[in-house]
Design brief:
Layout lengths: L1 H9 L10 E7 L6 E7 L4 E8 L3 H17 L5 E2 L3 E7 L2 E7 L3 E2 L3 H16 L6 E3 L3 E3 L2 E3 L2 E3 L2 H16 L11 H14 L4 E3 L8 E4 L4 E3 L5 E3 L2 H7 L7 H10 L7 H19 L2 H18 L3
Parallel strand pairs: 4-14
Antiparallel strand pairs: 1-2, 2-3, 3-6, 5-6, 7-13, 8-11, 9-10, 12-15, 13-14
Helix pairs in contact: 3-7, 4-5, 4-8, 6-8, 8-9
Length: 299
Amino acid sequence: MEDLIKYALSNSNKVSKNSFVDKIIPVGGGCINKAWCIYFKNGKKVFAKSNHINNINMFKFESECLLALKKFANESYIYIPEPLDLISYETISILFLDWIDLKQTNQNILGQGLALIHKLSSEENNKYFGWDEEGFIGTSIQKRGWDTNWGEFFINYRLRPQLKKAEKWGVKIEEYEDILLFLNSFLNTHNPKISLVHGDLWSGNCGSTNNGLGSLYDPASYWADREVDIAMTKLFGGFHSDFYNGYNKIWPLDEFSDKRTDIYNLYHVLNHANIFGGSYKQTSLKIIKDLKHRIKTRF
């Protein structure tokens, strides 16, 4: 694989124009792509992710998300890695990104940086929720499309496709139509501002640079209610009060945002159930059961 990456780099003038590759070292941590640190003889380091050539659209989507996030990132608070090149060579596709030297996360700065992305992007005054191209959340398709109505968008473009996939392991989507109808209406009463979101914000997809800035990577972005990012930070842990204090310092959350957390996280738990199975299935059904109870008691 290292040789394939070297050959691919020899056809690119974007990654490192004036230096040859010194060495390529595998990097751990991912379960979808193989990852690499590329050392050049001039001392530059580059991060690379490789996959089969059939999966090149995953890297195209990631590049688009990173560029969109960079557009609204305040670089005094947060760093988004630059996509350097995307190359297909023989049987592989490779995405090259700026290397980030990470250290222990400064969660207050990270929270402020995320809030600024949400706030600055909301000032674009977009009229639609969604994304132009088909995206990915993990290995699952993230449905493309637009809607002016947040409740309808989230139900029809996020929850319903995951519930449809869950039919393979026993979910009967027709049994949940009443829940989906209520959640649609419930989310519409919230009427959020339209912000660009990271879309897959768990602790493994963010960190801090060695100069103390927050950093975001591995996004699954779209235009949405900013609370979808905040909700996911509470799903798998890894975020503490400094993060939320930093976020609220820039753009305070709605006092009722916790009421929507389980709704937004159901999307991710269903996705994990559809990809990995196991206990995620039971967790999905428990969230649905709890939401059904909350509907009966009018939340």
